[in-house]
């Protein structure tokens, strides 16, 4: 699914003539498949690589969900909408994401819970 979303996003970026593109994803498996052997998803990853080339070869990096709250809120909103399969383009932050956008602009830190093992 993440590969299809990447392709769709790259198509939009190319159509809108967006340069100096930064691609960040919460899917470390996608980053690994793009940089290493892609196994069972050969065709999809080949398409992703081709679109990345057309988009000026931006680097694709993994980030934690907490590092981009805006994308997380927008993804959750999109999964609950009736627009699945029909991308929505926003040229300014939509109302449901403004508060998260403002926190992101301020550089507000979000804690990340990680399991700790004391059985050493």
TrEMBL record:
Coiled coil region boundaries: none
InterPro entries per the UniProt record, alphabetical: RNase_H-like, RNase_H-like_dom_plant, RNaseH-like_sf, RNaseH_domain, RNaseH_sf
Domain (RNase H type-1) spans: 3-77
Task: Please give one Pfam family short name.
Answer: RVT_3
- A molecular-function term among this protein's GO annotations: nucleic acid binding
Under PANTHER family, the record lists: OS05G0353850 PROTEIN (PTHR47723), REVERSE TRANSCRIPTASE-LIKE PROTEIN (PTHR47723:SF23)
Q: What is this protein called?
A: RNase H type-1 domain-containing protein
